[in-house]
Design a protein that fits this description.
By secondary structure, the protein is α+β, with helices and mostly antiparallel strands. Helix content is about 40%, strand content about 20%. The chain folds into two domains: about 5-205 and about 380-385, 2-Layer Sandwich (Ribosomal Protein S5, domain 2), CATH 3.30.230; about 205-375, GHMP kinase, C-terminal domain (Alpha-Beta Plaits, 2-Layer Sandwich). It contains eleven helices and 13 strands. It binds alpha-D-galactopyranose (GLA). Alpha-D-galactopyranose (GLA) binds next to helix 5.
């Protein structure tokens, strides 16, 4: 454990004692993620390649004798929630607490008996930055409640339970990528996940003198609104029209495009099919030690997300363009889109230049400056103390 994480968990434990007047039983952590490539492919039964960040959500917690879930967050002081476990139902509780309560509900729906518990949540992930702060929260709470309740669930299944919390309790129809990344990633690797079979492979992510720079465009995204859901619905309808279970199954893109009349569906299909190929190509490049060449894949993915899937936003387009002009090998928006972060693959000596280029480009347009973060492929969810 790094010194920073050890110090942070000592602090969280002390704050837990102040808040609940008793020691915690332990501290659990789940990371945010960056998806290297494979965007809007997960709910099309396709391939994704995320890795875990060093930043994430930590939970100090203690079991209770009653059947109550008590929730506090250092990021929402004064908004404590206390909910009886048997009264949990979708819609019962909203806001940040809904993600945590939703996990308790989804565990119950899956037939597990969750014990009452007091939780104190802390996060060092920027919210709305497209780095999966919601999945990190769900997965940290999932691990916490499972351990406190003596529930032992294989991690791929726990990811599905956390996804169910978000789909059915929070009401965001996300795919399985973010929860899988939080629970299954390992340090120094990206996770190649086949979202149909659920099978995953760890792919070594050796950046060899390059830095994966996260540019938080500070245009916060709102995935609970309709745009994400409507992309998903378009993909499902296009798959129906093509007579395949999911867009993952399109094998002949030219033929598929020729058989669709709707130009919007054609664009969506083109993105999903080519994006799955880009994931495979990226894995091949990483395995061959050709990480610099991954940059071209990132930029191609960005253009496809911008022009075919139409989920990019102006701040992301400008960040990617400025980064590439300043020497990045490539870059793209990450996550669901419509706000959040971009990533750029940058030769490490050029990181300062790339940051300056993005800052200048934003200033020239009168936009708030972006924030920067170095993405280091880190371990997945775990108990810290
Ligand atoms: C969000 C969702 C994921 C995935 C991405 C797009 O992050 O939570 O399931 O669909 O968007 O790739």
């Amino acid at each position: 454990m790094s010194d920073a994480i050890a110090n942070a968990s000592r602090d969280l434990d002390a704050t837990f004692q102040e808040a609940y007047r008793r020691p915690s039983d332990g501290i659990w952590h789940a990371p945010g993620r960056v998806n290297l490539i494979g965007e809007h492919t997960d709910y099309n039964d396709g391939l994704v390649l995320p890795f875990a960040l060093a930043q994430g959500v930590s939970v100090a917690a203690a079991a209770r004798e009653d059947e109550v879930l008590e929730l506090r967050s250092l990021q929402a002081a004064g908004e404590a929630a206390s909910v009886p476990l048997d009264g949990l139902a979708p819609g019962a509780i909203g806001g940040w607490a809904g993600y945590a309560a939703g996990v308790a509900w989804a565990l119950g729906e899956a037939g597990h008996r969750v014990r009452g518990a007091s939780l104190l949540i802390d996060s060092d992930l920027p919210q709305g930055a497209g780095l999966s702060s919601s999945a990190a929260l769900e997965c940290a709470v999932a691990l916490t409640l499972c351990e406190l309740s003596g529930i032992d669930i294989p991690r791929p299944e726990l990811a599905r339970i956390a996804q169910r919390a978000e789909n059915d309790f929070v009401g965001m129809p996300c795919g399985i990528m973010d929860q899988s990344a939080a629970l299954l990633c390992t340090a120094d690797h990206a996770l190649l996940l086949d979202c149909r079979s659920g099978l995953s492979t760890q792919v070594p992510l050796d950046l060899a003198g390059l830095t994966l720079l996260v540019i938080d465009t500070r245009a916060p995204h709102q995935l609970v609104d309709g745009a994400y859901a409507s992309r998903r619905a378009e993909c499902e309808r296009a798959a129906d029209a093509l007579g395949v279970p999911a867009l993952r199954d399109v094998t002949d893109l030219t033929e598929a495009l020729a058989s669709l009349d709707d130009p919007v569906w054609r664009r969506r299909v083109r993105h999903v099919v080519t994006e799955n190929h880009r994931v495979e190509a990226t894995v091949g490049l990483l395995r061959a030690g050709a990480v610099t060449e991954v940059g071209a894949m990132l930029t191609a993915a960005h253009l496809s997300l911008r022009d075919q899937f139409e989920v990019s936003w102006p701040e992301a387009d400008v960040a990617v363009e400025a980064a590439v002009r300043a020497g990045a090998r490539g870059g793209r928006m990450v996550g669901g889109g419509f706000g959040g972060s971009a990533i750029a693959l940058v030769p490490s000596p050029l990181v300062g230049r790339v940051c300056d280029a993005a800052l200048n480009a934003y200033e020239a347009r009168g936009w708030r400056p972006p924030a920067f973060l170095t993405a280091v492929p880190s371990p997945g969810a775990r108990r810290l103390a």
